[in-house]
Inverse folding.
């Protein structure tokens, strides 16, 4: 039995009792019944709003799932070269994030978030990029560097 049906039944019982509203007890009982009826209406209104919002959230969740599938391409791997399930690097069609084996890679650390990023020379030649982690603008200017800076960098990487 729904809350509104229970309240209707209770109001029928109260009406059948012929409560005298001239007494203090009668006034109090009838007032409580009125307040309860208003609360039932308010709860019913809230429930319908919750139902609408739940339906909207379900629709948005489905739409977001579709967008995620389109953007991140969570399909299973179709290649014969590997034995992976999802998101394999060998099947990635996005050429922006793949490097040739012949390219020299540079390691850059974002000063804001500390994230380390591998870049090829073409990205560094562009002069700047946004950090994929914190979206901080990273600018690359190696025109002022001397040969000693490059040698120091090479020695440091050899020691690791």
């Amino acid at each position: 039995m729904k809350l509104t049906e229970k309240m209707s039944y209770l109001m029928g019982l109260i009406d059948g009792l012929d409560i005298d509203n001239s007494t203090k007890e009668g006034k109090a009982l009838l007032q409580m019944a009125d307040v309860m009826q208003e609360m039932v209406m308010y709860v019913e209104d809230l429930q319908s709003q919750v139902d609408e919002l739940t339906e909207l959230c379900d629709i948005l969740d489905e739409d977001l799932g579709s967008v995620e599938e389109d953007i991140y391409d969570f399909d299973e791997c179709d290649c014969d070269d590997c034995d992976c399930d999802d998101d394999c690097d060998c099947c990635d069609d996005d050429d922006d994030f793949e490097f040739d084996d012949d390219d020299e890679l540079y390691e850059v650390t974002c000063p804001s978030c500390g994230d380390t990023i591998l870049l090829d020379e073409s990205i560094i030649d562009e002069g700047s990029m946004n950090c994929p982690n914190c979206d901080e603008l990273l600018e690359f200017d190696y025109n002022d560097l001397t040969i000693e800076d490059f040698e120091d960098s090479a020695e440091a990487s050899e020691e690791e």
